[in-house]
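User:
Care to share a sequence and structure tokens?

Assistant:
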Amino acid sequence: MQTDSRPSQLGPGSGASSSAADASSARVVNRTASHETPRVIRWDDLAEGNRTVRIELNELQYQLRLTKAGKLILTK
């Protein structure tokens, strides 16, 4: 096994510590390790007979529209 002889990017005066890097890596691992099952909503239940639905996220509105071909289009 070879070792890397280059100096570490994290050192005194670098503004970062190895514990901060470790914590950041742990957050990424935790996020990717989550196996949350997505919620399933049937179009008929969501649209209630309409062909379009308005969705609000962070004070922005989006329109989700069902086309005649049975495809969904999301627009801002």
Remarks:
- The helical segments are 18-33, 43-47.
